[in-house]
Design a protein that fits this description.
It is a single chain. The protein is built from eight helices and 15 strands. By secondary structure, it is an alpha/beta fold. The chain has one domain: Ribonuclease Z/Hydroxyacylglutathione hydrolase-like (Metallo-beta-lactamase, Chain A). The strands form three sheets. Strands 1-2-5-6-7-8-9 form a seven-stranded mixed beta sheet. It is globular, with a radius of gyration of 18 Å. The chain starts with 36 loop residues before the first helix and ends in a 12-residue tail after the last helix.
């Protein structure tokens, strides 16, 4: 049996009480095949749906955790993710300043902050990486690096960050961790930023897609259930420029063979949900397509 991940104070990922505005049930109880966080991490599963305490980190796959925050007031759900490898810990899209206290508390469920060696900023928006300078202070690791597209690095320099930048474009669009585990970076220009990118954990076939595959909904669940395509529609219509840009990117991502998509907003997609989401977004008119006179 897999040993528990490193964590501060020996806390298991299984909180019970609700607080700080998060909900106790991460799923609306509707996705068949959703198993317990520990079972997911061990690669096992069962037919029973279980509730997830969103006040604690939730395991999505082996060594991959959701450490995000649900904010019912904005309808945006900040999905920060933590990847715990043998000698590296990667925090993906650490979130905004208002999200910081919730996200860092969940990070502490799993690791000590100084164990974090890499921060990933999928693009420069404040809801994605606005708290990076504060995270940097708490991590206090002289070896910390920040991975971002060069167009994003150009903009987040204004945050006054001290850590070294890791530019994927100068490193074959991949990062090899100390264990040999590989992270791949896929540029997704103008979706919705010139420096937007997707991060892929090759080991678990998990894609961290930032705003792509995101959603807006009052009926949010951490794991996608009924209605998730409808939640994706208004988000992409508002924030993606046009189907002419969106469709080729979605077609390219569809060929990668992901098993799991983890957006920065919205819900985690798995299994057959991926094919439905790819098909939906390939045909979705968005942005400029919706202006009068554009068909």
């Amino acid at each position: 049996m897999r040993q528990p991940a490193r964590r501060r104070g020996g806390r298991a990922i299984s909180g019970r009480a609700t607080h700080e505005g998060d909900q106790a049930d991460g799923s609306r109880g509707a996705t068949p095949g959703r198993q317990s966080a520990v079972a997911v991490a061990e690669g096992r599963g069962g037919p029973n749906v279980v509730a997830h305490d969103l006040n604690s980190a939730v395991a999505l796959a082996r060594d991959v955790y959701w450490v995000g925050r649900h904010d019912p007031d904005t309808l945006l759900h900040c999905n920060a993710y933590l990847l715990v490898d043998e000698q590296d810990v990667v925090l993906i899209d650490p979130g905004s300043i208002p999200d910081f206290h919730v996200i860092m508390r969940k990070v502490l469920d799993v690791v000590s902050p100084e164990q974090i060696t890499l921060l990933v900023a999928s693009h420069q928006d404040p809801d994605v990486c606005g708290n990076t300078a504060v995270v940097e202070e708490v991590v206090n690791n002289p070896d910390l690096e920040i991975a971002a597209h060069p167009e994003t690095i150009r903009l987040i320099r204004s945050l006054g960050l001290r850590s070294r930048y890791f530019d994927p474009s100068e490193n074959g669009w991949r990062r090899v961790l100390k264990s040999g585990r590989v992270l791949e970076f896929i540029p997704t220009p103008f979706l919705h930023s010139p420096g937007a990118m997707v991060t892929v954990d090759v080991k678990t076939k998990t894609a961290f897609t930032s705003d792509l595959f995101g959603g807006i909904s009052r009926e949010w669940s951490l794991f996608a259930s009924g209605g998730y395509l409808e939640a994706m529609t208004p988000f992409h219509q508002r924030y993606m420029p046009t189907n002419a840009v969106l469709r080729p990117c979605i077609e390219a991502l569809e060929q990668k063979g992901f098993e799991r998509i983890c957006p920065q907003h919205g819900s985690v997609l798995e299994g057959e949900q991926l094919a439905a989401a790819f098909a939906h977004l390939k045909e979705l008119r968005c942005g400029l397509d919706l202006r009068a006179g554009n068909g």
